[in-house]
# Entry
Amino acid sequence: MTTLSVMISPPNAARRPDRLPPDVVGRLRHWVRTCLRLDDEVVVSVAQLACPDAGCAPVETVLAVLTPKTTVHRTIPLPADRITVADVQAAFAIPVSSGLDRSAS
# Structure
């Protein structure tokens, strides 16, 4: 199964975010898979975007789940390396009582 990890900046972006380290991408994919109880066949995409527009975070991270029938994505207004498991849980509305370790970073 091929997975996608990209970094996209709008043409008018003030600066381009740094390339995402593989360990950060792997950690975020693991947390999304665990939170949503996804199997390995489901594609989880992680993208970090720069946004120069007023009112948006300078760097935000998009987590996307792609299945044959649907695509679900959530945007977290933080750089990928600052996202915690609690941020992923909140983005996908996963109850704290799900048993996933909230202290992991």
